[in-house]
């Protein structure tokens, strides 16, 4: 090799276009070259990131010919990826989509702004019919998320970005009914990205998105991990409308749904007044209740065998809905929202008041198996409820001040009944959070500490 062709070291700028061309020529799949092993694709990604092969930028002076060669190599790279994405072979298409998502992250700002409309259309087509490859759909969702995340960093194209985001929402919502768990997970992750970065694009899809999300986690066929993702996504939906009313209405409907589920779960285990009090704060006397969450009504459901229904449907649903409340209280919103503190605290007290014991008048109407099931699941519900109480304290802030003394009494009373270590630890943690939020002095905090230890 001639001396002029040698590089100074691994940091020589001339090395970058050479390495990129070598990858395109020798390692990327093409029509007459088989798909490489996944490990090879991983090595390609590693090389690109380690050497910054897609950045088209350097620090300090550089030979213009080097930059021209780099631009030409990038053109070849992009052309090959677009060709792979447009192809009919699912494995090669998948490789092209994965690398196009990487390109969205790593390429220069000028190239991204010039090319993103074309890349968007290519990726969008892969989550719509007639595309039927599950792993192509999953990788397309991930690549679209990369594209929109990068696009969010360019305020000068915000209008165009919002328009593209709006075009993606409907196809993504359709993916939520896909048979593949991986596709649904990819879709819900992308949906969270869209509503977080470009909330206005979700405005006209609000009701459709709510219905689709609720129907998925209410079905009882989702894993807990997936259900948590749905809860997180639903908690983000009010951002699409950006007003207090939308946030308050969704919170009200979620709390009503939780209480309705508790009616069935806690039948024979609580006083009638608990349910009445909780609902009174949500639907004042003389007012009509809002439409049910997701347009679903428990009265429309088929009745499963009681024990199976409680364990497989009611408890998971209540947990997911409580997680959604927690997320709504923790999320930031463009406007100040009014937290329904009394309704939330009534729900907390309702759940924590149930310990599995029966009223004497109810004993003839229940079996020991039913009571055993309730008692086995109550610690889970109590932990979820204590998490909700933590979120209330942190999220309501000043709105909690009129109720702070009542919350402290609730915690003290519950602490005297709680025997499980996890519950007692959680209560102690919540009490410290409450006292800190109230701004009490160190002496009073220590006094509460010793009081709890003595119980």
Account of the 3D structure:
The longest helix has 29 residues, at 368-396. With 455 residues, the chain is mostly helical. The protein has helices at 15-26, 38-51, 64-86, 90-106, 109-125, 134-151, 158-175, 181-197, 206-218, 224-236, 244-265, 272-282, 306-330, 341-353, 368-396, 404-417, 421-438, 442-454.
Model regions low in confidence, pLDDT < 50 over at least 5 residues: none
Report the span from N to C terminus.
83 Å
Oligomer: single chain
Our count of domains comes out at: 2
Task: Kindly state the number of beta strands.
Answer: 0
Shape summary = elongated
Question: Helix count, per DSSP?
Answer: 18
Whole-angstrom Rg = 28 Å
Structural classification: mainly alpha
Strand share of the residues? Answer: under 5%
Largest sheet data: none
> Which bin fits the share of residues in helices?
55-70%
- Series of H and E elements: HHHHHHHHHHHHHHHHHH
Mean pLDDT: 88
């Amino acid at each position: 090799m001639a001396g002029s062709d040698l590089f100074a070291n691994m940091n020589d700028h001339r090395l970058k276009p050479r390495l990129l061309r070598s990858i395109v020529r020798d390692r990327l799949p093409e029509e007459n070259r088989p798909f490489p092993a996944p490990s090879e694709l991983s090595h390609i990604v590693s090389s690109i990131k380690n050497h910054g092969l897609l950045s088209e930028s350097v620090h300090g002076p550089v030979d213009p010919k080097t930059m021209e060669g780099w631009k030409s190599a990038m053109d070849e790279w992009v052309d090959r990826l677009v060709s792979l994405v447009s192809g009919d072979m699912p494995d090669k298409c998948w490789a092209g989509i994965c690398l196009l998502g990487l390109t969205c992250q790593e390429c220069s700002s000028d190239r991204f702004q010039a090319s993103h409309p074309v890349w968007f259309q290519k990726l969008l087509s892969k989550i719509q019919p007639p595309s039927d490859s599950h792993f192509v759909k999953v990788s397309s969702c991930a690549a679209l998320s990369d594209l929109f995340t990068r696009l969010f960093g360019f305020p000068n194209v915000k209008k165009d970005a919002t328009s593209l985001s709006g075009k993606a929402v409907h196809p993504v919502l359709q993916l939520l009914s896909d048979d593949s768990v991986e596709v649904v997970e990819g879709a819900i992750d992308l949906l969270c990205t869209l509503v977080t970065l470009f909330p206005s694009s979700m405005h006209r899809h609000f009701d459709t998105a709510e219905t689709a999300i609720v129907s998925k986690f209410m079905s009882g066929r989702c894993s807990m991990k997936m259900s948590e993702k749905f809860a997180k996504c639903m908690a983000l939906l009010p951002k699409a409308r950006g007003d207090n009313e939308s946030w308050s209405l969704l919170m009200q409907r979620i709390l009503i749904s939780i209480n309705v589920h508790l009616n069935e779960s806690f039948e024979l285990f609580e006083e009638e007044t608990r349910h009445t009090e909780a609902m009174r704060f949500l639907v004042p006397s003389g007012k009509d209740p809002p439409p049910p969450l997701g347009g679903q009504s428990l009265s429309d459901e088929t009745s499963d065998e009681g024990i199976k229904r409680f364990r497989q449907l009611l408890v998971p649903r209540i947990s997911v809905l409580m997680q959604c409340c927690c997320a709504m209280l923790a999320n930031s919103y463009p406007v100040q929202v009014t937290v329904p503190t009394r309704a939330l605290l009534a729900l907390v007290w309702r759940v924590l008041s149930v310990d599995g014991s029966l009223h004497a008048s109810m004993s003839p109407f229940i079996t020991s198996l039913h009571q055993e099931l309730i008692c086995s699941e109550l610690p889970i519900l109590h932990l979820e409820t204590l998490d909700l109480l933590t979120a209330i304290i942190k999220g309501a802030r000043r709105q909690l001040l009129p109720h702070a003394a009542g919350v402290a009494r609730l915690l003290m009373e519950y602490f005297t009944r709680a025997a499980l270590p996890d519950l007692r630890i959680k209560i102690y943690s919540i009490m410290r959070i409450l006292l800190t939020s109230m701004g009490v002095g160190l002496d009073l905090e220590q006094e509460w500490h010793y009081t709890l230890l003595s119980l």
